[in-house]
Design goal:
The protein is α+β, with helices and mostly antiparallel strands and 975 residues long. Among the domains are: 6-163, no CATH class; 265-312 and 320-345, no CATH class; 481-587, 3-Layer(bba) Sandwich (Glucose Oxidase, domain 1), CATH 3.50.30; 614-811, Dna Ligase, domain 1, CATH 3.30.1490.20; 817-949, 2-Layer Sandwich (D-amino Acid Aminotransferase, Chain A, domain 1). Helices cover 43% and strands 14% of the residues. Strand 11 and strand 12 form a beta hairpin. The two termini are 59 Å apart. Residues 627-949 form the Pyruvate phosphate dikinase AMP/ATP-binding domain. Keywords: ATP-binding, Kinase, Magnesium, Metal-binding, Nucleotide-binding, Pyruvate, Transferase. Its cofactor is Mg(2+).
Amino acid sequence: MKNYNLNSIYSILIIALFTSVTIAYSQTSVPADNIKTLVEKYKSDIRGPYRDIRWFCTDGSIRQPKDPCPDDIGPGVQHARYKDEVVALGKSNHIFFGQILAFSNNEEIWDSNNNHSRLKQYQLDKYLRLIDDGWINKKSQYYRGSVQVEDEEAWGIAFYKWILAKDSVVADNFYFLRQSLKDIPHSGDDNVAQLMRSESKVISDLYTPFMDLRTKIHSQPEKSDIQKVLDFKTKNQKSLTTDLNKKLDGLVTTMQTFFKPVDVQALLNKSKLVKGTTLGDKVQTFVQGLSSNEKPAYLVNETAQLLLDIREGLLEEKRPLARLQLLDISLKLEELLFQNAPNWEPTTVSEQLEKICALTTASVGAGYLELWEWEQVSGTLSKFGQEQLSLAELTQVLETARAAVEWSAAMVKANYQEVVDVYTTFEPKSYAFIDDRIRGSMALHLGKSVGELGDFIAKESALTNMVMDIPNQSTFRGLNPGYAFGELVVVDGSSEDIEVSSDKIYIFQRSPSDLKPVAGIATVAEGNMVSHVQLLARNLGIPNAALSDANLQSLKKYDGDRVFYAVSNKGNVIIKPEAKMTEQERELFVKKERNTDKIEVPVEKIQLGNTDVLNMRNVDASDSGALCGPKAANLGQLKKMFPEQVVEGLVIPFGIFRDHMDQQMPGENSSYWEYLNAMFTEAERMRNADVPEPEVENYQLRQLETLREAIKKMPLKADFMNQLEAKFKSVLGSDLGAIPVFLRSDTNMEDLKDFTGAGLNLTLFNVLDKEKILNGVKEVWASPYTERSFKWRQKYLLNPENVFPSILVIPSVDVDYSGVLITKGINSGNDQDLTIAFSRGAGGAVDGQSAETYTIYDTGGYRLLAPAREPKYNSLPATGGTGKKVATFQKRVVNENNLNEIKQLAKTIRETLPKETNSDYEGAYDVELGFKEDKPWLFQIRPFVENKKALSSGYLESITPKINTQKEISLSTKL
């Protein structure tokens, strides 16, 4: 209802109730359980989240619903007001229920300070309403006058006129802006594809026998599914309620709308503003071409190309409403492609490669891949015109195409995961939102085509996965070789609060950042191959693989089963039921003596008598394991080799820790050190008395918790604190507490010949306050006694009682991006290649972020293995602590100059470090570094430790096919 011109009033609406706030809330957040109660309350409330309906006039006055704004005041809008508790929830938790667009201004809904949270919540709310009969508006969806459709559409047009005028916003947020058009009313269009999926989900939730058809509609929708729904209704008529019959009829109507051929001529009506422009002419040519050629291959190729053309040319068109028309055309093109992609059924390898290339092109045009990413992969995916390819070349095409599917899915997760995680705490149905978005994208059809190519290559190379009886197995790929036997645990959701067990095999959406020992892992979001979790898995021979969302869903029915899991040296994956294990596989798990395959922490050269705070310039690699751990020793070595690329630093050696541990422990008749050793003595007595190992471990963990808390409260000796203050001034050039520093745990258990210990102990970021630094020293000393660190040590070390922490103190560098260099091609298997993984901000790549990853070839050139898809990154403000900044993905993280510098750095390290350290080490190195204004800074170097037993295992070798990578495949070969 309206009596006004909407465009004239947005700037003066009274919207103080919903003033945008940043993440740092001043009010106490409402607990998730309380919000859940509110949600249930609103579902049964005839007004839902709304209080009443009012007129909102141009002059700021608010009038009763039957008393419109008079003409002498000017136009106004009529809609509901929010309940007070809804307003309060927005202020305390930044959660907004039942948002009315006409009650908001542009900046509020765009919500840039909070990574566009409000607009994403608006989209998620619409999804929940579709799948849950109105959700919080279950009763209030019939509350007449609460929302006026025409007002919302008018607001939507005004919003896009405002936002699409901003070139930088369009460039930085192309995917998200385009997705928002599916939800914000602006032209009367509906998201029919999402409605179809939602209706089928509602039916299957109410009536389980419909699940198979729902799965078909969600994973591979075809026009023939309409008849299948009708047949299902006829077959099950006796069991169907009136409500189910009504819902099935509604689904059929929606499907008929969805599969109704897109009126290509209507695209011309949508493009009136761009008529005569370059893009307008391309739309005209496209429409004319389809009128004379209806072959599916032609349609898919041409539609994909026009999608890409619109994206590439959008910024050349400066008129916001013309941009809106082009984006609406883009959405219609995606709908056309989604309908027709299944109709193209390739018969040869060449046609399959061509279809994959076209669908990837479409994914770029729709924003699921960035333009720079397309530049990196387009050459590999465009080889379908050649007569033949070697098996190695064809496999690279497959890997690249498979990566495009993963990157597309990761784009959806990067944009929406944060909001979905918040909503899932009080509304579990929210979790399916991301899956729904992925299934509505080109990734659905692209994934199917890539899977078919994978099946063909698997037959040609004999590199076949054997994963239970699930479909699309070619999307599994091994990351670390190894084998395991245990209970399969499939985690479809957040893994951060999962309590893992060392004898179980876990399938995660994303592995937890502080993963404790497990028997085996596989992840959908693998993070990156050089994160601490990946390095530990590689080091300990824990089988680790990547899989697709669909694979995880298929494995859910085996959750709780005992399985055998193996990843070969070439990356093929086996998961089979216990009953199908061979005798050879059973022999792998015959019980061994406790100490088998464990190593001893060397303590023969440790110098515990040195209690001086050291200048990092005065330590080098020879001091590792003697005065301090390898972090400080090796960084001191790097300071000598690269003085301009390494910061100054201080080292708190082992001796200072050991000296403090000799103090009396409060509440005990012993020192801290005596308490620790008594615990190990008692544990060994318990084992000798045949006490079960889990009971021994629980005893140790309880004792360690007591010790850990005591160390955190331990008094620091005056001599040590005086030394620390003096060294801050003389070495770091500032008073203690005047500059922010990193405190890095640096134990003698790290970087041993056969054990990396990566990421097990504490690093404190960017600590500024003097008291926080001093308390931080004690926190770092206590960190080797956490449950996670202790369990990893127990798994691998013979003498875990002889673990000593030193601390490396270095000033913070607020780098633009940071990551890891491995002087080996992990993916290529070539020792002369390099692997790098970088993320934006500080602490990049090591904590499992989705990092920008490359192989740099020794022969020249490089290959993008994955782009970064982390929505936020760490900054290190001069005031201390860490900040979070929002990332966009339209530009690469690492530039060409950086790649060349990294290559030169690796060459210098390989040639110089063994000489400088008088070392006979011949393996690869793991280097942490960052760039600030294109200048490289080095933060750590350590040996890159792999599990030699896993790599040389006779069993793993036996399941690794011998592949003739030079075998030539004619692209005219029939599939």
